[in-house]
């Protein structure tokens, strides 16, 4: 069928290259365009995971929408086959502009509108339609250059396409992201895409173009490349403006690590804010309340050896090191940049009481799950100060298997405390954590601590006039702020009511009565019948 439609090449204008050379150039363009297309796809998934969280959901949205849109693009391309050269040139220019600018627009939507989900779906749809239109037009062009049977042409095209996708998929995490970052990497990819598509059509197929089509392609491609180049020059200014919109005007440190984006705001320890991937995790105004509630109930008993999982900011370690009978503290943090910042930043190190200077503290840069599997020590207290269980990257750290590893690491009479999310805003996630701890072989006693009014000193979109300014918890449905912190205290034997043990330092904001009331309040919110989360079947999701 294809041979019958494109066998007119003998009657068409002679190409400026030999058939073998032309075929090679078309396949080279396929290779480059496929690499660029996969970079756009990965860039959308990665940036959406950073900005929105829950990488599995974001990857599913991008991939499913894009594959669906590719089918639509393939159907629409049928109408362009009689003008394959100019159609392919315009499609590549549009793909270069939309794909290259997608990271900028997605980040701008997050920074100024506080919402990037709709932009994510829109870009996935547009990029998918344009990628889907490529293959039918390239099929026509390759037979225009070197007529061959349809099966051979399809095999050549898809081979070049798949190899290009491999190169793009490897270039994104190992070259573009670490060397150029999300924004500049996407812009550069768009420029390469425009050059490859435009050069193929304007050189190899220039005799198939009318003078008007040739001028149109030149103007469109030059304009696209000029827009992308201008955006690349201004990308640093854009990032600074976007950061001010997200974090306020007092950004002191902003660094992209191999794990996350880390931002510090505020001029001193009393105004400090720590953001991880755009989410306010620590506010100096009330962090002590969260960390006191996390640490002190677990310290009621033997406490010579303490293990902290997460907590690279050093604030949980500060509370632990207030106990004079603690002999050693091991802190396992996946992002060494966070612990380095906690050591060296004047405001953060002052806020954590210079915990990293204490010789009793040893910091380890590792994934907590992997580290526990290899560690064979026993600990009197294990403190799990990890991100929200709803964030997919941390889901395994809230699994029954993970708590089973912790149970094996506990000494006789050892205790575990877990930050489990806000029980009032996200009750199913909270009680799934509690069920998972029990499935790991431990008895549990959940408790909650309400936040205190703290205002919104940073101007961050997620700030709120009541509750508390920061914690590892996300906002609830509709942007509803959490109104409490939820914890699960656990041990191999029966667990009493949370309280302050003998020799405990005096907390700034908590007392025995409030902790006991927190346990009763948590029991009043209990959701029976929650099933544990496992590695094979994770059970944390967005709650509405």
UniProtKB/TrEMBL annotation:
Principal subcellular localization: membrane
User: Which InterPro entries does the record cross-reference, listed alphabetically?
Assistant: MFS_trans_sf, PABS, PABS_CS, SAM-dependent_MTases_sf, Spermi_synthase
Tell me the domain of life.
Answer: Bacteria
Q: Which GO terms describe its molecular function?
A: spermidine synthase activity
> Which keywords label this protein?
Cell membrane, Membrane, Polyamine biosynthesis, Spermidine biosynthesis, Transferase, Transmembrane, Transmembrane helix
Locate the active site: 385
Give the membrane topology, semicolon-separated if more than one.
Multi-pass membrane protein
Which residues of the sequence carry a binding annotation for S-methyl-5'-thioadenosine?
A: 260, 333, 367-368
Q: Where in the cell is it found?
A: Cell membrane
What is the enzyme's class at the highest EC level? transferase
Mind telling me which SUPFAM superfamilies this protein's record contains?
A: MFS general substrate transporter, S-adenosyl-L-methionine-dependent methyltransferases
Pathway given for this chain reads: Amine and polyamine biosynthesis; spermidine biosynthesis; spermidine from putrescine: step 1/1
Q: Does the keyword RNA-binding apply?
A: no
Indicate the segments forming the PABS domain, all copies. 226-472
**Protein purpose:** Catalyzes the irreversible transfer of a propylamine group from the amino donor S-adenosylmethioninamine (decarboxy-AdoMet) to putrescine (1,4-diaminobutane) to yield spermidine.
Task: Give the family, as the similarity comment puts it.
Answer: Belongs to the spermidine/spermine synthase family.
Subunit notes for this chain? Homodimer or homotetramer.
Q: What is this protein called?
A: Polyamine aminopropyltransferase
Source organism of the structure: Streptomyces cyaneofuscatus
